[in-house]
Specification:
By secondary structure, the protein is mainly β. About 10% of the residues lie in helices and about 40% in strands. It has helices at about 65-70, 165-170, 185-195; strands at about 10-20, 20-25, 40-45, 45-55, 60-65, 80-85, 105-115, 120-125, 140, 145-150, 155-160, 180-185.
Length: about 210
């Protein structure tokens, strides 16, 4: 589980593709400071497992299945690509963002980038199968960053990014047409599942 608060921007050092899968090596320092083999690290919002560390201790490697390459924007990265990184949260951590699983629900493109004096509005595509989970003032994860939805349009949604977010994440280097990973609020998915299954609440009985 993650919070959607990016701890560090790393750099792709190696992308070794082989038979539909790939090994990714990311250069970084902060997220590997207390990491162990087998730990989870979110890379652009995708939960990946650490398989080894760089010899100099400044980076880690992870394996990506064909499913990951096909269904996330990590299939687009190349050597030199910056990526957002976050360690899995501990039980004592402050939940400064929202509950993020690191399970990418879809991929979308940047549609509009509109700079303002004190913030930047970014509009993304909203895949039709995810639209029902995205609401104004709700939470969404874009490339591993917990963001608040400013508005929802016809096939799009917009967020507002403050200068700090633009400076310490990959959002500041994004361009129109770039693909990003999306994860919708997991609570919305569970609520939908329970309602569609006709589950009766134990709190709805008479006399409760």
């Amino acid at each position: 589980m993650f919070t959607g608060l990016v701890e560090e921007v790393g750099t792709v050092q190696v992308l070794d593709r082989h038979d539909g899968s790939a090994t990714l090596v990311v250069g970084c320092e902060t997220v590997v400071a207390d990491a162990s083999i087998g730990d989870s690290i979110a890379v652009n919002g995708c939960c990946l497992t650490v398989t080894r560390f760089a010899e100099d201790g400044k980076g880690f490697a992870c394996d990506m299945m064909g499913e990951t390459l096909d269904r996330t924007a990590l299939g687009d990265v190349a050597v030199g690509t910056p990526v957002n990184l976050e360690r899995a949260m501990s039980a004592s951590s402050r939940l400064g963002g929202h509950m993020v699983q690191g399970h990418v629900d879809g991929v979308a493109r940047v549609v509009v980038i509109e700079p303002h004096e004190d913030w930047t509005t970014v509009t993304y595509e909203l895949p039709a199968d995810l639209a029902r989970y995205v609401v104004e003032k709700g939470s969404i994860t874009v490339d591993g960053t917990s963001l608040t939805v400013m508005s929802v349009g016809d096939g799009t949604f917009s967020v507002g990014l403050i200068p700090h977010t633009m400076a310490v994440t990959t959002h500041g280097s994004r361009a129109v047409g770039d693909r990003v990973n999306l994860e919708v609020d997991v609570i919305a998915k569970y609520v939908e599942r329970m309602l569609s299954a006709g589950v009766t609440s134990p709190y709805s009985h008479e006399g409760a």
